[in-house]
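Aim 2 progress update. The chain analyzed this quarter is reproduced below.
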Amino acid sequence: MKLPPQLELAGVCLREMTEADIPAVEVLERRLFPVDAWPLQMFFDELAQPETRRYLVAEVAGEIVAYAGLMCIEPIADVQTIAVVPEFEGKGIGSAILTELIQEARRRHAADVLLEVRADNPRAQKLYLRFGFERIHIRPRYYRDGTDALIMRLPLTGPHPNESAPTEGATW
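Predicted structure tokens:
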């Protein structure tokens, strides 16, 4: 997977998630999403479906600092999860992972990419808007703590310039 030069220089490696990564990813999941963390088995179940799923991790010095996953069942792709540890936010890692997920959706012939984002997460919303996602619906009280989910959609009917390397000042 091709990364922007600044991430390569910073020693970031983006690669496929493997079953061996799941224990470390699950620790991050519980740290980053304490209320809504996926159960450990869910990661194993997702990786067991490569015909419709793709999961990635980003590493720095051999340590996982981000992960993400996509489900694609034509004509829809869905970003299942995307997370970057706070210490590595703002470096373009989230943008690089999202770029790869969108490219995967295109390879799998999806017409649209959907995702859900917490209504109280403006940083993530800003990233998605920069990539061309639009808010299409609200799921009231979707998360366990009662926070709404915003449903966002990216049509894949044409090129999206923001899918290339993150722009200067990337914030996630």
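Residues 93-107 form the longest helix (15 residues). The chain is about 30% helix and 30% strand. These observations will guide the mutagenesis experiments scheduled for the next reporting period.
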